[in-house]
Predict the structure.
Amino acid sequence: MGRGTGGRTPRPRGSALPYLLVTPAVLALCLALGYPLVRQLVLSFQEFGLAQQFGRPPEWVGLANYRELLTDGYLWRVTARTVVFCLVNAVVTMLLGVGLALVMRAMSTPVRLLTQTGLLFAWAMPVVASLTVWQWLFDTQYGVVNHVLTALGGDFEGHGWLLHPLSFFFVATVVVVWMSVPFVAFTVYAALTQLSEELVEAAEIDGASPAQRLRHVVLPSIRPVLLVVGLLQIIWDLRVFTQIFILQEAGGSASDTNLLGTYIYRLGIGGGDFGTSAAVAVFMLALTVVLTAPYVRAMLRQERSAA
Amino acid sequence: MARPTPRPTRWLANGVGLVAFVLAVFPVYWMVNSSFLDRNEIRNRVPTWVPFGGDLDNFRTVFDGGQFVAALRTSLMVTGLTLVVALGFAFVAAVAVSRFRFRGRMSFIVTLLVIQMIPAEGLFISQYKMLETMELLNTVAGLTIVYVAGVLPFTIWTLRGFVEGVPYELEEAAMMDGCTRVQAFFRVTFPLLAPGLVATGVFGFIQAWNEFTLALVVMTREDQRTLPLWLSTFTDVNRGTDWGGIMAGSTLIAVPVIIFFLVVQGRMASGLTAGAVKG
């Protein structure tokens, strides 16, 4: 919609008006993001714990916070856990989302509309509400999941899903994937509708099997969309916070299930060690920047080709 | 679609579609269903699959506590304020970016993109410290400040698309007919933007309404909780979980969002790829 149609003849002049127009936004962003960013960098080089909360001036400790963290096995465990969780979620989401988008093309129209409506409901569901429902579904005593699995012959009566870290992350993955698949399916399906039908037909006439058509014609032609959507999944799944935090509160063991986000929270706001938690936050930002760079480049390329 | 799909393939695809539909919808259905079940039906080994009970007790429990109404008030204030400020700021910035060429324009755009990718968890420690210094913890104003910054980049990005969708030639024509530039903008372009503004506003509303992480950090006092915080503490393990009440609360929070979302989704489709719309 919209972008890059007509209207691309704006005035090339050196007036002050455009600067005036962006000023409120720039000021708001500087206040709420820019200043905290600087402050966080400063904080990460300081000793800032409980004593400082009660008024003692913070002490400069140079790289001590970072050194402490980098030599601490726990941070590396949390980081590894975060990366693995992120990749598993992103891959599962992409496989299901792209697969569903491809299958949607073969559905009859009423079924496709029904499927899309269902996906919209999952997409629209507020995070916290969806978490309460999934907790209820996985409830130890009265949950539907245990009931159905027991009825199917498993021994799941009174099974606690959040107790064991691995099964904790399984539940978290179900919630995250359930919420994320609709976006992928819709975006990829939209890209597929732009696909030229003649091209696919030509490949078919040339004797390409469905798998070959998929691999050599369909997927390459939606490659840019797949790339952007995949990157977004990675970026988003790297910062899963709400799901983990709420499931932890519901009975998971926090230290065994912390990801970077919840670790920062529990270290800083929970534990009062602001210096160290600021250092972890800086580390997380750096990780995000590295992952975001290709996304930004892809978006800018799109931007330029639209202009 | 020119080529008819062969029958067995179509049936298989339809089967997959139906399974996907059920998996996507069931949790939402289950939330609404459970909210109408009374205590005995909820605590039954065999799930009650259909809401023939029609029991409203759970909703009564939600309202009786008084905490729901307090949280609703806080949520409405924060969301409303965020929306007004963010839409205003974003609108003028979007006009600048799409109707003018100026030095720094491209860096502004790149910055917006990068900011959208910053995880809230990466900054909330120092945002907390900042608001603490400003004595704005546990205030609507404090939470609004961080929310505005959170929704601004996406809002500017989307509105920019809508402004660019209105051909500049229309404004030029109006100027030739004797309008000033400001008049031309407000008489010609602005009315055409109304649907875009509404759609973007609804999306900003949904984001602020659902937000959990920053609310958790900024609103530490129980009497200042927003709705998502209220709902999350409802599930406290120590209290012996009242699933009926929780589902009633979830339903009350989710239904308006789902309706809004269904209404604006189509209009926003193009903007979504370009922005971080996720909880």
